Amino acid sequence: MSYKCSRCKRDVELDEYGGVRCPYCGHRVLLKERGGGIKEVDVK
Amino acid sequence: MAHDFDVEFIERGDRKARFLVRGLTPAIANGIRRAMIADVPTLSIDSVRFVENSSVMFDEMIALRLGLVPLTTSLDDFEEGDEVTLALDVEGPATAYSGDMVSSVEYVQPADENIPIIELKEGQHLEFEADAVLDSGKSHAKHQGGVAVGYRHLQKVEVVGDTPEFDDGEPNILRGVIETEDGELIHTDEFGNDLTQQFPGKEVEVSDVPGAFVFHVETDGSFTVEELVLRAVESLGLRAAELEEKVSV
Questions:
Q1: Tell me: the pLDDT tens digits for B181-193?
Q2: I need a surface site. Which of B17, B78, B221, B234 has the fewest CB within 10 A?
Q3: Count of CB contacts below 8 A, A vs B?
Q4: Where does Zn(2+) bind (chain A) (predicted)?
Q5: To the nearest whole angstrom, how far is the Cα of A31 from the nearest Cα of chain B?
Q6: Residue B132 is inside which H or E element, if any?
């Protein structure tokens, strides 16, 4: 799963041992990246 | 059974009207009201393909907002189930409005151009394609063309005498449209809904006029009030004809 650090804006890959933390700046707030595909939503 | 209907407009606009119909039964009046709400189809966004959405709201929440944007609907050109595609591409900092949507059909446009969809900050981007489908209010409230449809009895106001000399002067509140003894139709808003303002010092008696109903109709902008009423009445007629045909077989 790819994330983006909300402070340094770099792409971050998380693994199960590293915890939720940016390996470059140490910031703990990561934003999930949107997938590349088109998402279809029904309006119901 | 032949009916002589008599229709008189009290207030007439494209989106809002008030009119009096004489010669109706309560059942037919309610049938027309229900047909205006549930039977007259409108175009409404039914599915959205999100290419990009980096706004603060989820795709599903934006899609629900889009479903409630009224679209101008030409009922002569579409049948139920027909689709029209609309697209939007806005980058922040900006607010994405309904008017930013570009339609594949020139005469299908958002009825109001200034409905905010989402406020986008610097670096946020919203891009989607949406399919609008023609359907009726029976299937979903977003397809209701008539948004405020109701009726009241016409009320006749008769002066029966003078108020007593030491009357405490309490207001006599009444809402709707009244018919005076001269046959004049007045909406009670004009005199603050207080009969003592319109008939000062007089004692009045209010009674419903049988078979006379005042309709108040507002549309969401998909079409005019006239079109909504005519289509509703037409749908009632078609249903009655269908019933007649089925019974006679």
A1: 888 899 998 889 8
A2: B234
A3: 34
A4: 8, 22, 25
A5: 11
A6: strand B125-135
CATH topology (fold) of B43-137? RNA Polymerase Alpha Subunit; Chain A, domain 2 (2.170.120)
The answer to whether B53 contacts A41, with C-beta atoms less than 8 Å apart, is: no
B contacts of A33 (beta carbons < 8 Å) = none
Q: Verify whether the Cβ–Cβ distance A42 to B46 is below 8 Å.
A: yes
Say if the Cβ atoms of B63 and A41 lie within 8 Å. Answer: yes
Please count the other Cβ atoms lying within 10 Å of the Cβ belonging to residue B120: 20
Distance CA B119, CA B97 (A): 9
Domain layout of chain B by residue ranges? 6-39+147-218, 43-137
Q: Is B110 helix (H, G, I), strand (E, B) or coil?
A: strand
Class of domain B6-39+147-218: alpha beta
| pLDDT of the residue at A36 | 79
B2: confidence class by pLDDT, cuts 50, 70, 90: low
Query: B16 to chain A nearest CA, in Å?
Result: 28
Backbone angles phi, psi at B86, to 5 degrees: -125, 150
Q: Is B54 on the interface with A (CB under 8 A)?
A: yes
In percent, the amount of chain B with pLDDT more than 90 equals 73
**Identity of the amino acid at A24:** Y
pLDDT per position as a tens digit, B17-45: 999 999 999 999 999 999 999 999 999 99
In angstroms, the separation between the Cα of residue B50 and the nearest Cα of chain A is 5
Rounded to an integer, the average pLDDT of B118-137 is 94
What predicted TM-score, i.e. pTM, was given to this entire model? 0.81
Which chain A residue has its CA at the smallest distance from B54's CA?
Answer: A34
